[in-house]
Amino acid sequence: MRNIIIFFYFISLFFLIVSLAGCNTGGKINKVGMLVEHSINDQTWGEKGYQGLLQIKDKYNVDVYFKEEVKNQSEVNKAVNEFTMQGVNLIFGHSSIYGKYFNSIKESYPEIHFVYFDGAYEGDNLTSLHFNSNAMGFFAGMVAGKMTETNQVGIIGAYEWQPEIEGFYEGVNYQNPDANISLNFVNDWDNTERALSIFSTMNKNEVDVFYPAGDSFSKEIIDRVRESQKYAIGFVTDQSDLGNETVLTSTVQYVDKLYIQAAEQFDKGKLAGGIFTYDFEDDVISLGTFSPKVPKVFKQKIENEIEQYVKTGLLPNER
Prior knowledge:
19% strand; 12 strands; 44% helix; Rossmann fold
């Protein structure tokens, strides 16, 4: 009788293991969540994050969830708790703001790995992914410095801390020391009304190349630039589709690729907590399509300079 009980015990254990194995993809991902500070429909940063989430869904055949307009600790706490009830064990915070929010709750959710962008918080289950966007901005600034006809270049930034803006400024100066750079900040990713007001002022002051470095307002600014028959540099995505004779090139961040990379590492149990930085050599940063207005010789010069940067880690003004 005892042998029969043991036999049935092992049979039950076998079927339990088989059934559990059929519930996942063979790795660690169960379900994935994403928190967005604003909207996934901004045609730049938010949309690219959402595309990354969908790519994870397709690759790993898992359920994914997202919540928009999550902007403070209480909203993060509520969303994370809801994700946990749904079985989510990998959460992306699609902004730098989520670092401090995740850091305050990470120990309460040891079964969840938190990932966010461009911050200084880290932990065993907290990972920060950084785009080294200074160089990207520098090379785009060189293009702007080359193509300005009035020697007036305008930067409409979201925030002062954006590394791509500092790089852009330096790139314009390196390529064209005679250029005057107008710089103003919206202090918001999405305040299109203020961004358009800044554009109007710059436009009246003969700025003829614009860099609208903000999620939601870059498209609106580029539309106005095209109407004014001037030039722009696209932001986050390749925005050449807004006018290939208007958009000289774009500063592109492939955040969707980083989503996939992070998911792959997590699924293999290899996603470490910490701060990790990515640049041109990681194939997650690039310049976008060049306008036919940019001379071919100069386009080749920029491409050569990028190659040298990848090899040496030094920008043209540092070599």
